[in-house]
Specification:
This protein is of the alpha/beta class and 352 residues long. It is built from 13 helices and 12 strands. Helix 4 links the parallel strand 5 and strand 6.
C-alpha cells in the first residue's frame, strides 16, 4: 500500500510490536472503521497492508501541523509507543496530543507511571483497569465487528467448512497455548467431561511459541493417554478465526490472567455462550446466567461444573447463545468504540 497524505492525517496509531497480540488485533479491527470517519494512519510493523499506513520516512512530517487542525493525536497502547510520543512532543516539539490506552490489571512500574503522567488523555478498557490508574481516565470498552463475528446460518455447514465433523457439538478454547491462558485447565476439564458426553468434542485453536512448545506437547500427550486424541483437537493458529467460532456450540475462556480479553466478545457475537474465569474484563462482558457463566480464576472444579451444566442442557446453550448475540449487538459494537475514541480525539483538538 502506498504511503498516506500526511497533511490530512489527524491521528497516528503506532504499533511497535511485530508479533500478533491482543493490542495488535484491536488496531487491525478499529483502524479501518475509524479511517472512514477521521484521517488516521498506523506506524510500525506487524500490520496488514490494507490499513492506512505512514512510512518511517514520513515521521518528520509530524513536526508540522496537519491542514486545518492545530494538533495531531498520537494514540499509544504500549510503553515504547508512549515513549516515542513523549520524545516527539517534548524534545522535537511536534504538535501532538498524547493518548494512552491501558488494559493492564496490575500495579504499574515506576517507568510506566512516569510515561502515563506525560499523557494528555488516558483510556482504560474496563472498570477493573481504571482502578489501577493513578491519573484521571475514561473507560472505553472494546467493541467487536458483529458483521465478521456472526452466528452460523447452518452450524453443520460451518463445521464442515473448517474441517470438523458436521452435526457434533464442539467446545472451543481459542488463544495462545500457554499456562497463563489456562489451556491446561481446559484440557483437563475436557478429559474429565467428554467421556460422559459422547456427542461433544473440543477444539483448541492457537499457537504455541517456542518457549511454550513443551507445554503444548505435554497437553497433547495427556490427551492421547486419555484416549481422546480424536475428540480434543489442536488445530493451530488461524487468521480466519471467525469461521471457527461459527462451528462451536460453547466457548471456554479459562485464563489465569488477562488484560482485557476479546475472545468472549467474539464468541458471544457468534451466538455462542461463554464459560469464563473471572479475569480481565470478562465479568464486565458476560451477563451471568444470561449469556454465560463466570467462575473463579484458576479453579478447575468450578470450571468443570460450569461447563458440565451446559453440556447437560443443550436447550440452555441455545437460549444463552441467542441472548449473547443480542447482548453484544446492544453494548459492544465496534462502531461504538470507534465513535467514543473519536470524541476523545476531537476534545483534545478543541483543547489545543
Amino acid at each position: 500500500m502506498s504511503s498516506v497524505d500526511m497533511s490530512t492525517v489527524r491521528v497516528i496509531v503506532p504499533n511497535f510490536k511485530r508479533r500478533l497480540s491482543g493490542v495488535t488485533s484491536t488496531i487491525i479491527q478499529l483502524v479501518p472503521l475509524q479511517a472512514s470517519l477521521i484521517g488516521i494512519a498506523t506506524l510500525g510493523p506487524g500490520l496488514p497492508d490494507r490499513l492506512p499506513r505512514m512510512r518511517w520516512w514520513q515521521v518528520a512530517s509530524l513536526l508540522r501541523r496537519p491542514e486545518r487542525f492545530p494538533v495531531r493525536v498520537w494514540h499509544a497502547r504500549r510503553n515504547p509507543e508512549m515513549l516515542a510520543g513523549v520524545v516527539l512532543k517534548k524534545i522535537f516539539r511536534a504538535p501532538l496530543k498524547l493518548v494512552f490506552t491501558s488494559a493492564s490489571q496490575r500495579r504499574h512500574t515506576g517507568w510506566t507511571r512516569f510515561l502515563i503522567g506525560r499523557m494528555d488523555a488516558v483510556i482504560a478498557t474496563s472498570r477493573k483497569t481504571a482502578a489501577y490508574l493513578r491519573v484521571p481516565n475514561t473507560v472505553v470498552m472494546h467493541g467487536i465487528d458483529t458483521e465478521r463475528f456472526r452466528p452460523a446460518v447452518d452450524r453443520s455447514e460451518a463445521q464442515r467448512a473448517v474441517g470438523l465433523e458436521p452435526g457434533r457439538h464442539y467446545v472451543g478454547c481459542f488463544g495462545r497455548v500457554r499456562r497463563q491462558k489456562g489451556t491446561d485447565l481446559f484440557v483437563d476439564a475436557m478429559i474429565e467431561l467428554l467421556p460422559h458426553h459422547p456427542e461433544w468434542s473440543a477444539v483448541i485453536a492457537g499457537r504455541a511459541t517456542a518457549q511454550h512448545k513443551a507445554f503444548e506437547d505435554e497437553l497433547k500427550a495427556r490427551v492421547a493417554s486419555a484416549g481422546l486424541a480424536d475428540r480434543i483437537l489442536f488445530v493451530g493458529e488461524h487468521r480466519d478465526i471467525d469461521r471457527w467460532y461459527r462451528a462451536l456450540t460453547l466457548f471456554v475462556a479459562p485464563q489465569r490472567w488477562e488484560g482485557f480479553g476479546l475472545t468472549p466478545l467474539e464468541a458471544m457475537a457468534s451466538g455462542v455462550p461463554v464459560v469464563a474465569a473471572d479475569v480481565g474484563a470478562f465479568s464486565e462482558l458476560i451477563e451471568e446466567g444470561s449469556t454465560g457463566t463466570i467462575v473463579p480464576a484458576d479453579d478447575p472444579i468450578a470450571m468443570r461444573a460450569a461447563i458440565a451444566a451446559y453440556l447437560d442442557k443443550p436447550e440452555l446453550v441455545a437460549l444463552h447463545g441467542r441472548q449473547a448475540r443480542d447482548h453484544v449487538g446492544a453494548r459492544f459494537q465496534l462502531r461504538q468504540e470507534a465513535d467514543r475514541l473519536i470524541e476523545i480525539y476531537e476534545e483534545l483538538g478543541r483543547g489545543a
